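Lab manual, section 2.4: Encoding a predicted structure.

Procedure: take the sequence of the chain (161 residues), apply the prediction step described in section 2.3, and record the output as structure tokens. A sample record is shown.
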Amino acid sequence: METADAVPPGSASGPPSGPASGPVPVPASVRISAWLLWGVIALNGLTALLTVVLREDLVRSWAEGNEGEEATPAFVPVAIVLFVVLALLGWMLVVFFCNGHGWARWSIAALVVFIGFSAVVGLNRNLPTPFLVLTSVSLVLYAALLVFLFHKDTNAFLKRV
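Recorded output:
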């Protein structure tokens, strides 16, 4: 049975402890932020999987906007490497963040802003419909993650730890 102070799997073994005040409870905003980051990673994994499955559609979509180009980009290796890097980086950052390291919050925020900007640019590229839907859902998730990263309870938690 989960307790109110539980954190997502793989993020931390428990709430951090303060200098002399004992354990500092992990607020809901921090736990939700961690789960939203796992959601971002999961959507990126789904995007990588769709890149493998819908490779021909991506190539066809790319070719429509790039007539005359001889070399077709290698979408699949890039998507897989991007997923692996994002998953490992996200996992490491969520561990530090849930343990009260404020710099990890800023790193997560920078990561989300960067991939959010890339997603917005990608919306303008005539992508197949499944990618447009995933990108739209991802943008909502990124916005929600940023809100919870900078929630007043998250700020208070990072100051107490």
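Check your result against the sample. The longest helix spans residues 28-53.
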